[in-house]
Amino acid sequence: MTELLTPFHYDYMVRAIWVSALVGGVCGFLSSFITLKGWSLMGDALSHAVVPGVALAYLLKLPLALGAFIAGLLASGAMALIKAKSRIREDASIGIVFTSFFALGLLLISLNPAGVDRKTIIFGNLLGIPDQEVKQLLIISFLTLLVIGLKWRDLMLFCFDPNQARTLGMRTGLLHLTLLTLLSATAVAALQTVGAVLVVAMLITPGATAYLLTDRFGIMIWLSAGMGVLTAIAGAYASYFFNGATGGCIVTLQTMVFLAAFLFAPKHGLLSNRRRARAHLEATAPV
Questions:
Q1: What is the mean pLDDT of residues 219-246?
Q2: Distance between CA atoms of 136 and 21, rounded to whole angstroms?
Q3: Please, what are the domains in the chain?
Q4: CA nearest to 205, candidates 21, 46, 42, 35
Q5: Less Cβ around it within 10 Å: N or C end of the chain?
Q6: Is residue 228 pLDDT above 80, yes or no?
Q7: Which of 202, 279, 254 is nearest to 40 (CA)?
C-alpha cells in the first residue's frame, strides 16, 4: 500500500499530476466544441503549426507560449485565406498549412540544435516543466476557461448550426475567431506537457468519447472535461510505475476509454447498435 503512494513523495511527480489534470480539464472542455463543430483536423493542424513559433521563441529568448500562440493564429489565418481566395478545399488547405508550418519548425530547430530541445517540443517535458512555463499554463488555462464559461451557449449554437446563430443576430465571424483563438491557446498549453505530436489526442479524444455517451451538450461538456482530468491524473500517476512517457500514458488511457465507449456505450455503442439492428430485423421478419 505504501508503494502506491510513492509518486506523491516527489515534488516533480506531484507537479506533473496536477499540471496534467489542469491541461486535461481545459482540453476536455474545448474538445466538446471541436467535436460538435467537426474541427478535429483543425485541432491537429494547429497543434503542429505552433512548432515554428516555439522554435523562434527559444531562439529569441521570448516566452514559449507567446511564440506558439502567434504561430497558431498565423496558421489559422493562412488556412482561412487559402480557403477564401482559391478553389482549394478546406481539408487540403489545412493539410498544406500545418505540414508547412511543422516543417518550418523542424528546420529552425535543426539550424540551431543547441538552443532548442527538439524532443521537448515534439514530445513534451511534463516532468521537467519549469516554473515560468507553469505560470504561463495557469494564465492560459484561466483565460480559456473564463471565455468558455461566459460564451459557451453562443459557441455551442455556432458549432451546432452557424446559420441559425447568424439568423439570431450573433456575430458568427467573431465566434469563429474566438474558437480559433481558444484552440490555439489550448494547443499551446497542452504542447508544454505532452508535446506537439500528442496534443491533438487530448483535444479530440475526450469530446469524441463523451459524444458517444450522451445526446445533451451540457452533459457532454462535463463528461469530456471530467474524462480529461481523470485520465490525465491516472496517466501521469501510472507513468511513474511504468517508467514511460507521461504524455504517452495519458493519451493511451484516453484511447482505451474511447474504445470502451465505442463498444459499450448504452445508446451509441457498437454492441447497442447491433442489438437494435437485430431486434429490428426480428420485428420486421415475415412470420
A1: 90
A2: 16
A3: 2-279 (1.10.3470.10)
A4: 35
A5: C
A6: yes
A7: 202
Please enumerate in sequence order all residues whose Cβ is within 8 A of that of 41, keeping only pairs 6 or more positions apart, or say none.
91, 94, 95
Confidence grade of residue 115 (pLDDT, cut at 50, 70, 90): low
| Residues in Cβ contact with 14 at an 8 Å cutoff, skipping those fewer than 6 apart | 7, 8
Task: Specify the 3-state DSSP secondary structure of 276.
Answer: helix
Instruction: Pull the grid cell for residue 68.
Output: 506558439
Per-residue confidence at 257, pLDDT binned at 50, 70, 90?
very high
The amino acid that residue 170 corresponds to is M
CA distance 235 to 212: 22
- Residues 65-95 have pLDDT tens digits of 778 778 878 887 888 788 778 888 777 888 8
User: Are residues 140 and 65 in contact, defined by beta-carbon separation less than 8 angstroms?
Assistant: yes
Cα–Cα distance for residue pair 45/102, rounded to 1 Å: 9
The secondary structure of 7-76, three-state, reads HHHCHHHHHHHHHHHHHHHHHHHHHHHHHHHCCHHHHHHHHHHCHHHHHHHHHHCCCHHHHHHHHHHHHH
Determine phi and psi for 243, rounding to 5 degrees.
Answer: 55, 40
The tens digit of pLDDT for each residue in 117-161 reads 666 666 677 777 777 778 878 888 888 889 988 888 888 888 888
Contact criterion met (CB below 8 Å) for 222 and 203: no
Q: In the chain, count H helices and then E strands.
A: 12, 0
Q: Which amino acid is at 50?
A: V
Assess contact for 36 and 160: CB atoms under 8 A: yes
Residue 201 pLDDT more than 60? yes
0.85 surpassed by pTM: no
For the beta carbon of residue 217, count every other beta carbon within 10 angstroms. 18
Q: Does an H or E element contain 141, and which?
A: helix 131-160
C-alpha cell at 273: 447498435
